[in-house]
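User: Fold this, then the next.

Assistant: Folding the first:
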Amino acid sequence: MSIPKNIINHFKKNKIKFEIVSHKKVYTAYDLAATLGEKLNTIAKTLLLKVEFPKVTKKKAGYYVVAIPADMQADFARIKKELGALKIELAPERIMKKLGIEPGTLPPVGSIHKLEMLMDKSLSRVGRVLVRAGSLTESMRVRVKDLHAVEKPLVGIFGKKAKKK
């Protein structure tokens, strides 16, 4: 099994039921959907964001995990406004590696790394989603309400429809 033990243990400890789904090596949520014949809105795309706050707030700069449906792209302007942030950008790959995460495999569980979680509310409509789980060849299918119960994410509109390619 190529899913890291800390992720499996986290799910088991928190009683999150999961199904492991094996697939060919993929790097993006779009490729995952194409490989497994899944609809894009049933896959949670997870990004690590670097967030900076104005000096007048008590919030410190840091990293946030955001989960949105794979048929959307992150709406940085909306996230920035919701958090009251000064600046938002994708975290550099070196930060992901420092956290022990291979780029493209970030699971929607910020609590493992003591990071706050943002979740697009449209994921709640799906019920069960396919999520990346620290592996390029295995993902997990989980119930969105289980992720909510454990991660206690800030829920809002954090994605916008992706432009057609």
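Now the next one, as you asked:
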Amino acid sequence: MTGRRSRRIPLDLRAFGDRHDIFRLSGAVERSPSVDAWLMDDSIALRAIAREWFARMRDCGDDVRELMHDGCPVACVEDGPFGYVNSFKNHVNVGFFHGAMLDDPAGLLEGTGKRMRHVRLTADGEVSVSALSDLIDAAYRDIKVRLNAARSAREDASE
């Protein structure tokens, strides 16, 4: 071996994928027993806060499905996730898979990821119920638009 590295050629793989790729989760159901079990675990002090906000996600529409992913309840439309809740020792996160793209006039969203954002809730902290509800509604509408755009793109490509 001469110690020379082979020359790397950058590849643009975007043409091989769907422009409208959406993170998808299989196995979502109308009402998941494992989600219910997680939400009802009263040994976690802040679980009631998570339960309240996940119920709000469930109420977005008849097409909301749910599953457990990475140890926490996730709300989906079809197989496209839009929100999740997770509880920790001192706080609860209400998160959004495309939160970076949501309008957040109340400034509730935290995080620096490319797509995901969350709202951090504590037992003694105040949060604008209407602002967080608006974010949940916006995330629900957003995933529906993304799913429809991906479906249309697939149909156009097959014609």
